[in-house]
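The instructor's notes for this session suggest beginning with a concrete chain rather than abstract definitions. Hand out the sequence below and ask the class to guess, before any prediction is shown, which regions might be ordered.
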Amino acid sequence: MKDKLDHSIDIATKEYVDALLGLSETMFHDFKNILAIISGLSQLSVLDATSPVIKENLNTINKAALDCKDIIDKFYSFINGYNSEYKEDRVFGNIVLNSLDMVKHKINSVAEQDNRIELNLSINSLSKVYCNEYRIRQALLNILINAIDAMEEDGGVLGISLYERVGRIFLEIWDTGIGISDENIDKIFMHKFTTKGVNGTGLGLKISKDIFEDHGGSIFVLSKQNVGTKFTIVLPISETGLIDTL
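After discussion, reveal the predicted structure:
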């Protein structure tokens, strides 16, 4: 009975998400048209402006419009290809870098509070994995956002290390944040378990674990309270092997 109920919920959820995606495409198109008008008019107005202050303000408006367009493009890139059953060979390093790019605004927002997060990045693999890129990005974003949240109060270091060993690709994501207590370390992949109170759903890490396992992979965690946390993701390398460049 429970399996039938879960299946019905999955179908209803997919239909709802599909409807949202269709609506989102129209909204993205409309927003980008509006931003193009704002950007274009601000650039034209700069040519006629005589006041340095007005010119500076118009340039700021233009930059804000372009930044907003960039954010919309990134979000659209994130949801594009939502079909969870579709898989293809993708360079895993590219997916990691794209996922990191999507959370840079969150890193910058922490820095604005005088809590700088230093990035330690090491990409040492050009190998592909057979995957649904959307779902893999979703899984990585859950872990990256948790890492940033763990350093929100005091800042720290966010580490990302990608390498391969004997037919498998390894991704380590670590932070020097608040860490996870011994009491909670075995619960973090449980359904609806969260340490964030009303700000958490308890679904993120469970979803990430399910996604990696659905791709023939696994995820491990090591953590020490007030020292930091490290997640290690292991996925099989695709038989197609390497490509020329990232």
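Then share the key points. Residues 99 and 137 are 6 Å apart (CA to CA). The mean pLDDT is 80.
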